[in-house]
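User: Can you help me understand a structure? I only have the sequence.
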Amino acid sequence: MTSIITGDIINSKESSPKNWLEPLKLVLNHFGNSPATWEIFRGDSFQLEVAPEQALEACILIKATIKQFKNIDVRLAIGIGEKSFVSDKITESNGEAFINSGVCFEELKKTTLAVKSSFETFDTPINIMLELAQLTINYWSSTSALLIKTTLEHPDFNQSELAKTLGKTQGNISQGLKRAGFDELFKLLNYYKTQIQTIC
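Assistant: Let's start by predicting it. Here is the structure, written out as tokens:
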């Protein structure tokens, strides 16, 4: 079992690729090398393969990376399943995970983050939770997005270390994490990881 994330930048014409392309490549590179693990195509679309238990955290990290830049966002569809054909390029590989990701991506309308597997009992509650989470995530300011990104990239950092890294006070960090809904997001990520084990 694997997971394929299909994504594209919303309103990509509103922001120069000079701003967001390198940060996007850096975050994708965090999970493996291109073109085997990830690839950017058509200028503002991409695919990434990660272990199923990593998929949601990868999406939140990508969201936080892109939402640092004004006027743009990112659509993300997680497909979970088998990989039946392996190519040197991820965009040429195939299987259930790729099909689920493509179908999920096509079905993204009002939501910008969803998951599809072959298990409806897994997908339905997770997708309801993701829709609720987006009531906060979709309205992150660039400051909140950077804070969430830094926190996810340094899970061992305490608030004082985060403050030092970002040039803020510990009080700023505490308030910022609360405003960005980090505690609730952390619970959601942990819940997702426990549930993914039941289908993988």
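Now, to help you interpret it: The CA atoms of residues 147 and 166 lie 8 Å apart. The chain is about 50% helix and 15% strand. Let me know which part you'd like to focus on.
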